[in-house]
Amino acid sequence: MLALAVAVWPRGDDGETTGPRSTSLATGVPDDLRAAAGLPDCPSAAATGNGPLSGVTLECLANGRPVDLAAALAGKPALLNLWAYWCAPCAQELPYLQQYAQRAGNAITVLTVHSDPDEAKALSRLRGLDVQLPGVLDADARVRTAVGAPAVLPISVLVRADGSVAEVVVRAFEGVDDIANTVAGKLGVAA
Asked: Where is the Thioredoxin domain (predicted)?
């Protein structure tokens, strides 16, 4: 048993035995896993937020800090994409969302919402897909509940600048143009 413990204990670059990896105090997710995912920080509070997301505070995947969603999204249209690491259609859609976010620039906030409690698997999945979008952890489906969405994935929530919900899209997007056309039609954001 001792040999097994020594064999799996993390080691430094020089082969010396080291202590356990540094982890986030909030969730216990290793800091190096967060860093490896390369996610940008979540939007910060721009103003007092309104709408159904008012009062919903979730953890930022990039750093484990709390994010007041309504306040962070206030003043700008947003696309929230609810997904989970185990969802195959989500994995197909996430790279399209990345491309759309790059195309749209600062005209809209694109935020992923991991709808499962396993944050480590979410970070690994995003890294594997090479998707670097800001995201939050929603282990208790608080966003889905707040906007009245069904219990399926993926779901995209289109939020107006005033915090009201323009549309809950209950399907996977089929490409970047599909996202752009849907967002332009519901939020008036051209990309």
From this structure: 33-188
